[in-house]
Amino acid sequence: MSAAPKAFVTPQEYLAMERQADTKSEYFAGEIFAMARGSKEHNRISGNVFGLLWSQLRDGRCTPYNSDMKVRVASDHYAYPDVTVVCGEEEFADEETDVPLNPTFIVKVLSPTTEAWDRGGKSEQYRQRASLQEYLLVAQDRLHVERYSRQASGEWLLTEVNGREAVLPLPSIGCELALSEVYHNLPFSDAPGRR
Fold it and tell me: Which homologous superfamily does the CATH classification assign to the domain defined by 38-182?
């Protein structure tokens, strides 16, 4: 006996359902994927990053959003980054103003169950957004951050930082992140590899 085919959901149907839902789901190519709850480490790191950016951006031209804000990654892909920053005039998918179309900066805290997709297909789609200038992948099991920054040529440059003393400049939004603050209250050592 074969499984029944999954029903195709349009982006408009997804948005209508998601806005009424009690839990968060992402959308890709006509399918809806429930999001797993984040670990304690994941939540602390994403909260730390949001707080650090909010304190640096609160009086400027850029607005940070936490993981409750969806982003239209592509016409058939909607996701919830852990932190999104939009600079300048914000553009939204519709009058609900809950789906920014022009993110400047995105942060994703890596999770064991989604790391391959976050590094692969999702990362590639994010980097195709014309407005996106920087994209961070933040490890949740060690002191390690990867920054992808768009160059004038359109190519992306990878910079990796490790250790509690590292400070990562974020020129696209005029901020910086000290890893000691990103990983505040987490018991990771500076040793390479996993904790």
Answer: tt1808, chain A (3.90.1570.10)
